[in-house]
Design brief:
Layout lengths: L9 E5 L13 H10 L8 E5 L4 E3 L2 E2 L12 E3 L1 H8 L6
Antiparallel strand pairs: 1-2, 3-4, 3-5
The protein binds zinc ion.
The site of zinc ion has 4 residues, from loops.
Length: 91
Amino acid sequence: MCGIGLGPAATVLARPDGKVVTNAALHARCADLALATCPGLSAVLLRLAVTPDDLLADGRPLPDAPPALTWQTWRLHPQVLATAVGDAAAP
Ligand SMILES: [Zn+2]
Protein backbone atom coordinates (compact mmCIF):
# COMPACT_ATOMS: atom_id res chain seq x y z
CA MET A 1 0.00 0.00 0.00
CA CYS A 2 1.36 3.37 -0.94
CA GLY A 3 2.06 5.95 1.73
CA ILE A 4 4.04 3.72 4.07
CA GLY A 5 6.96 5.55 5.61
CA LEU A 6 5.91 8.99 4.45
CA GLY A 7 7.32 11.93 6.36
CA PRO A 8 5.33 15.04 7.20
CA ALA A 9 5.04 15.95 3.53
CA ALA A 10 3.39 13.86 0.84
CA THR A 11 1.83 14.13 -2.57
CA VAL A 12 -1.90 14.12 -3.23
CA LEU A 13 -3.89 14.10 -6.44
CA ALA A 14 -6.91 16.38 -6.32
CA ARG A 15 -9.68 17.41 -8.63
CA PRO A 16 -9.88 21.09 -9.56
CA ASP A 17 -12.67 21.50 -6.96
CA GLY A 18 -10.28 20.41 -4.20
CA LYS A 19 -11.54 16.86 -3.62
CA VAL A 20 -8.54 14.61 -2.98
CA VAL A 21 -8.72 11.53 -5.18
CA THR A 22 -8.93 8.29 -3.13
CA ASN A 23 -8.24 10.25 0.08
CA ALA A 24 -4.66 9.12 0.01
CA ALA A 25 -1.24 10.59 0.57
CA LEU A 26 1.27 9.20 -1.89
CA HIS A 27 4.99 9.17 -2.47
CA ALA A 28 5.82 11.67 -5.21
CA ARG A 29 7.14 8.92 -7.49
CA CYS A 30 4.03 6.83 -6.92
CA ALA A 31 1.81 9.79 -7.82
CA ASP A 32 3.77 10.28 -11.02
CA LEU A 33 3.52 6.58 -11.84
CA ALA A 34 -0.22 6.55 -11.16
CA LEU A 35 -0.81 9.59 -13.35
CA ALA A 36 1.25 8.06 -16.14
CA THR A 37 -0.33 4.62 -16.08
CA CYS A 38 -3.79 4.66 -14.53
CA PRO A 39 -6.59 5.17 -17.07
CA GLY A 40 -8.89 6.35 -14.28
CA LEU A 41 -6.81 9.35 -13.33
CA SER A 42 -7.49 12.37 -15.45
CA ALA A 43 -4.86 14.71 -16.78
CA VAL A 44 -6.76 17.59 -15.20
CA LEU A 45 -5.92 16.42 -11.68
CA LEU A 46 -3.78 18.66 -9.53
CA ARG A 47 -0.58 17.07 -8.22
CA LEU A 48 0.42 18.81 -5.02
CA ALA A 49 3.00 18.40 -2.28
CA VAL A 50 1.15 18.88 0.99
CA THR A 51 1.39 18.47 4.74
CA PRO A 52 -1.49 17.36 6.99
CA ASP A 53 -2.25 21.04 7.68
CA ASP A 54 -3.08 21.48 3.98
CA LEU A 55 -5.92 18.94 4.13
CA LEU A 56 -9.43 18.75 5.56
CA ALA A 57 -11.00 15.40 6.50
CA ASP A 58 -14.78 15.56 6.48
CA GLY A 59 -14.47 19.32 6.84
CA ARG A 60 -12.08 19.28 9.81
CA PRO A 61 -8.36 19.94 9.72
CA LEU A 62 -6.76 16.57 9.14
CA PRO A 63 -4.50 16.78 12.23
CA ASP A 64 -7.63 17.29 14.38
CA ALA A 65 -9.76 14.63 12.72
CA PRO A 66 -10.57 11.51 14.71
CA PRO A 67 -9.04 8.23 13.59
CA ALA A 68 -10.57 7.12 10.33
CA LEU A 69 -12.86 4.27 11.30
CA THR A 70 -14.89 4.88 8.17
CA TRP A 71 -14.13 6.38 4.80
CA GLN A 72 -13.25 10.06 5.11
CA THR A 73 -13.62 12.69 2.46
CA TRP A 74 -10.39 14.62 2.07
CA ARG A 75 -10.31 18.05 0.50
CA LEU A 76 -7.56 20.58 0.00
CA HIS A 77 -7.69 23.44 2.47
CA PRO A 78 -9.35 26.35 0.62
CA GLN A 79 -6.18 28.45 0.82
CA VAL A 80 -4.12 25.63 -0.67
CA LEU A 81 -6.66 25.18 -3.46
CA ALA A 82 -6.68 28.90 -4.16
CA THR A 83 -2.91 28.91 -4.45
CA ALA A 84 -2.98 25.89 -6.74
CA VAL A 85 -5.67 26.94 -9.17
CA GLY A 86 -5.99 30.69 -8.64
CA ASP A 87 -8.43 32.66 -6.54
CA ALA A 88 -11.16 32.66 -9.20
CA ALA A 89 -11.62 28.89 -8.97
CA ALA A 90 -11.60 28.63 -5.18
CA PRO A 91 -14.89 28.07 -3.38
ZN1 LIG B 1 4.07 5.02 -2.76
